[in-house]
Amino acid sequence: MITQAQVQELDRKDPLNKYISEFVKNDPNLCYLDGNSLGRLPKQTIENINDFLTNEWGKELVNGWTHWIDEAQRVGDLVGEASLGAKSGQVLVTDTTSINFYRACKAAISARPGRKTIIIDEANFPTDRYILQGIAKELNLKLVTIQNDIRSDSGQYNGSDESITIAELEKYLTDDVALVTFSIIQYRSGALNDVKELTKLIHKNGSLVVWDASHAIGVVDLQFDRDDVDLAIGCTYKYGNSGPGAPAWIYVSQKLQNELSMPIQGWFAQKDQFIMGSEFEKAEGMRGFQIASPSILGLRCVKTSFEMIKAASLRTISEKAAIGTSLMIEMFDESLAPLGFELTTPRDSNRRGGHISIHHIDAEKIARGLRIDKNVIPDYRVPNCIRLAISPLTNSYEEIWQGFIRIADYVKSGNYQHLGEAKSSVT
Ligand SMILES: Cc1ncc(COP(=O)(O)O)c(C=O)c1O
Known about the structure:
The protein is of the alpha/beta class.
């Protein structure tokens, strides 16, 4: 059994422990294991947003745009350097993940005229699958969906970890494939796909790749430039701690920026924006990929959190994620596997990010009851999966340990069985 003294020793040695007190924590007894869904609020964000409201918007009014105008690029450079392994001039922080996904995919497809097939996987996040289905319909393309879903035909867990293997992808690559798109971390199982090797294979086929890094950014040591990534998108509100609905980001590799163009030609992408000319002429660099006025309020939240990530260093953050998920798996083996749970996340820490996923026939009720009865916030995803995360800047090892003790006690007690139907459709 892992003891409290052991996890307290891990916390004492943790170089990131000092960041925990930099986040708002209203309830010291809460075990928040859902930082992979929505990160905590940094105290500095409150200060920076208040300062922006009072001293910039409030005082400067429209004059503020003289220095806000390029902020999506400036914060993009910060996000790229702090968390994507991207040198400056390749990232914009703007719009939503879904919008950025749509435009990245459309840009990639247009760059491979004559090719009519696009590839995604069934375990990918729903918005990506739905958007790609829409694009296939709009452009009359053949959509191939690799069947790696965690559920069998009967709806139960089929033993898969959902990762994309080279051997599996090879079966689908033909000279008709324009675009392949995957998530770096599978949102449900937590499996980490091999960005470098899969990208290499896709390029060998003459196709382009769009990576969704939503569950990887801020927890996996991403190296987009080194791994020759074409395009990538993701959010900032999970391990990025930038707040609900905070602006997302898009990465366009420098090598493709002249070749690619966006499906929405907004005025922020215009070469001489304030000449207000009659014809669109794409601006150079990342400005050519920006549609419209960014949310400066949202950008300040992103800036504050990613400055913290930069200072903490992603290598140190990812090391803590590996130790924390290993701790969770050890506790899973000790106390949850005997209670009927199955682990759906890879056991090799190089093949996962910050969350693990466990399957149980009563997972929905257990996840709901833990919030009500045990002051533990996990995350639930169909079918029957509970996701549990370490967000390295905000969780102590002891919080994780305590959460697991409470989960095991709760399942042993069987108290969740008395819960009625869920009142909210949000999980
Ligand atoms: C992997 C992944 N992609 C895309 C999205 C969609 O993000 P948004 O609603 O911000 O567009 C999410 C949301 O959680 C996600 O987890």
